[in-house]
Amino acid sequence: MTVPIIIVLAILLGWEYWQPFFGFFTSDWRKRMRHDGFNLAVGAFNGILITLLFASLWAATASWAESARFGLFNVIELPQWAHWIGVFLLLDVWMYVWHRINHRIPFLWRFHTFHHSDTQMDVTTASRFHVVEIVLSSVLRIPVIALLGVSLEELVIYEAVMFAVVQFHHADIGLPAKLDTMLSWVIVTPNLHKVHHSAWQPETDSNYGSLFSFWDRLFRSKRMREDLDKIRFGVDPTNQ
After folding, report:
1. CA distance 84 to 77
2. For a tag site, which of 64, 150, 215, 221 has the least CB within 10 Å?
3. What percent of the chain has pLDDT over 70?
4. CA atoms lying within 13 Å on the CB side of residue 120
5. How far apart are CA 166 and CA 190, in angstroms?
6. Is the CB of residue 205 less than 8 Å from the CB of residue 116?
7. Alpha carbon distance 127, 133 (integer Å)
8. pLDDT at residue number 27
């Protein structure tokens, strides 16, 4: 999974350099190196920690669920295409719910704030998560794997696709309005996620999707605005 992530990161970093939406670092490359280096170091630390602590637990849980015929996808028989669609949809709706809970419960928001505190959001912000949030998410993934009956391979493929989209919608880029609108019917786009990172709480508490965008329409948490170039990123002090 590491190689595709690095490839997507490199493409988006290049896009940000040549055609940024905000251009936070166009006049100071040293500031960008510090900003991006910090975010990527946080992401690398979290990735190594989770691999060491949880990868074997996830694999063992998936193996047990399969051998015990436990979990939704180990009980119901589906064509392969329907199975994969079901896996992606249910894993992603869990990510939506988990993200929304992080905004609603003060204890969890305390850690999720670390992600939102980046006032110069770019592709590296996708890697900036507090280690406590990452650990809690990884612990909860164990019962999710068991209850859904997903394999480790399915989880890894979903995570790779999801994180590629997460990098995409955090990037400091802008798509043509019609293209962004078209894509936003299915996946989370840069325009949608810029609103989510607004420092104004009503906008912060919207657009919770990670991969698929239709959960926000379904659960009425979608919010848009026209003047995206006026958004101020960060955290509203009254929302801490």
Report:
1. 12
2. 64
3. 98
4. 14
5. 9
6. no
7. 12
8. 78
Give Cα 2 to chain centroid, integer Å. Answer: 16
HEC secondary structure over the chain: CHHHHHHHHHHHHHHHHHCCCCCCCCCCHHHHHHHHHHHHHHHHHHHHHHHHHHHHHHHHHHHHHHHCCCCHHHHCCCCHHHHHHHHHHHHHHHHHHHHHHHHHCHHHHHHHHHHHCCCCCCHHHHHCCCHHHHHHHHHHHHHHHHHHCCCHHHHHHHHHHHHHHHHHHHCCCCCCHHHHHHHCCCECCHHHHHHHCECCHHHHCCCCCCCECHHHHHCCCCCCCCCHHHCCECCCHHHC
Which amino acid, residue 133?
Answer: E
Query: What average pLDDT does range 177-205 have in this prediction?
Result: 97
What is the rounded average pLDDT of the residues 216-236? Answer: 95
**CA angle at residue 235 from 177 to 26, to 5 degrees?**
55
Percent of the chain with pLDDT over 90: 92
pLDDT for position 8: 94
Residue for token pair 């936070």: 24
